[in-house]
Write a structure and sequence with these properties.
By secondary structure, the chain is α+β, with helices and mostly antiparallel strands. The chain is built from 4 helices and 6 strands.
Length: 216
């Protein structure tokens, strides 16, 4: 279809004021057409892109914060694993802990303590499943400084053994020495084992130990 032709000759006869009005109308139509058909759709697309960009920037910031926290958590977890590994190094297998308790009792005898009672208690696994407690109720007789040296030696052991419930009786003179009875709970800590362990030792030295107090 042919486009309509414009008769420019007829425009020459139009008065100048009307030409101005027609020119203004023409410019207005062109501007309105540009706005509605070009500028407004572009503006809507730009606003949509800006909104999408803001959304993506928010997600990036959120992910960056999560990654930062994740790095911190990973570092903290590694530190905990290192600390746990160090503590596990001080937790022997249960069989070794049993022999360690025997060595502790022999240590007391070598230092000059008289082991009156060496009574192993029931083993119990900690709720954390990280270690097993192996208690022994002990009563020794000896001079004060010997008992103090015995406890100091226990404290210096590389494995974890604790002393609790310490009670000292009234001192008395025996064979020219001032001795006292000392009772305490000795607890060895061991790594849990799946297989059954051997029985705990009932001897406190090379000679058979008494399960109860002497004289009973």
């Amino acid at each position: 279809m042919a486009l309509p032709s414009l008769n420019l000759d007829s425009l020459r006869n139009v008065p100048a004021p009307q030409k101005v009005v027609l020119l203004v109308l023409l410019v207005g139509v062109l501007v309105a057409g540009f706005y509605f058909y070009i500028a407004e759709p572009k503006s809507a697309n730009i606003e949509a892109l800006q909104a999408e960009n803001a959304k993506l920037e928010g997600e990036i910031q959120t992910l960056a914060i999560k990654v930062k926290h994740l790095d911190e958590l990973v570092a903290a977890n590694k530190q905990l694993e290192i600390e746990l590994a160090k503590k596990k190094e001080r937790l022997p297998p249960e069989e070794e802990a049993i022999m360690l308790l025997k060595q502790v009792s022999d240590l007391g005898v070598r230092l000059g303590l008289d082991i009156k009672l060496w009574k192993p208690g029931a083993q119990s696994e900690d709720p954390s499943k990280l270690f097993v407690k192996m208690p022994v109720n002990v009563e020794v007789s000896g001079v004060y400084h010997t008992a103090a040296l015995f406890f100091d030696r226990i404290n210096r052991l590389p494995r974890i053994i604790t002393v609790s419930g310490l009670k000292m009786g009234s001192p008395k003179v025996e064979q020219g020495r001032i001795v006292s009875q000392t009772t305490f709970d000795l607890i060895a800590y061991a790594a849990p084992q799946d297989k059954p362990t051997t029985a705990m030792p009932t001897s406190a030295s090379t000679k058979p130990a008494q399960v109860g107090k002497a004289g009973q």
